[in-house]
Amino acid sequence: MEGKLNLKAVWVFLKKNNIITFLIFFLPLVIYFAPLKFRFNGPNSVPESSILLVSIIAMFPALILMSIVSFFRQNNSTYWLKPLVEIIVLAARVDGEITAKDRKVMFNSFKSELGSSKIKKALSYFDSIAKEPNLDLDLACAKLLKVFDNSNSVILLNVIVKVTLTDQYLSAKEEIFLNSVCRKLGLPKSNLTSILAWRVYVSENKREQQSRQTFKPKHSSLSRSYKVLGLSENASFEEVKKAYRSLAKQYHPDKIRDKDLKENAKRQFQEITEAYNQIKDRKG
Fold it and tell me: pLDDT tens, 171-209?
């Protein structure tokens, strides 16, 4: 039973970190170790080949090398900046053509969310694909999933939401699009609900205007704090604690590799902590 669980854990790890990268290292290592022979019946027995043992031996250095590659991928914006910009372009085109005003909005959003080191690359790529008809949301999300875990993906979702809501209006089509992005990034809808609760915007579907003040839980209603945690107001305090622990784990800055995304995570981590503390003070 334990062996099965270990193999399952290895498989999950491989899927998460790109099995192709693993195979690129694993197969040459198998060939390298293939000449090895083993004495299965004692030190005086005839040495024998074993593809199974060779494979096991090759697996460990391959996993280590794959982890190193995965680490550098997450630290290198080359692997995630382009698919992120592709999703932002698709979001900007949901309600029509991209205008000069939209481009200016994108620039300001990139500046606040991505940091100065990535602005030029992001904007240049944005301009090059703004009218590209064959952008694929599934493919862009799949690329992000190859290099990011849930914590990093939820930070990217926050960037996408912020850019989409820069005009402080969420159309019905944009809401459908954001729900689709959330789902394709493998995130629960509660993550999107939480992110939207922090934002100042008017919803076409709900037809209600959010507060004109930047969200600060200590000055907002208790209802808003529940939304920040992705919960309804009738949630029990145990559910509140569970939701907070889950979100805190996702948004914890120590889990974010990229320095600019880390700053984004710090702000969000503070928001959910303040929301939790407000509910705790009232209900805990």
Answer: 889 999 999 999 999 888 888 988 888 776 778 776 544
Give how far Cα 160 sits from Cα of 12, 62, 134, 185, 210, Å.
Answer: 27, 34, 20, 12, 19
Q: How far apart are the first and last CA of the chain?
A: 41
In angstroms, how far is CA 208 from the centroid of its own chain? 29
Nearest to 149 by CA among 91, 228, 70, 89: 70
What is the CA angle 241-153-97, rounded to 5? 125
Specify whether the CB–CB gap between 233 and 224 falls below 8 A: no
- How, if at all, do strands 169-170 and 202-203 pair? parallel
pLDDT of residue 78: 65
State the amino acid at position 71 in one-letter form: F
Contact 92, 132 (CB under 8 A): no
What pLDDT score was predicted for residue 60? 87
Instruction: Let me know: does 73 contact 83? Beta carbons within 8 Å.
Output: no
Tens digits of residue pLDDT in 114-143:
666 677 888 888 889 988 889 999 999 988
Rounded mean pLDDT of 263-276?
77
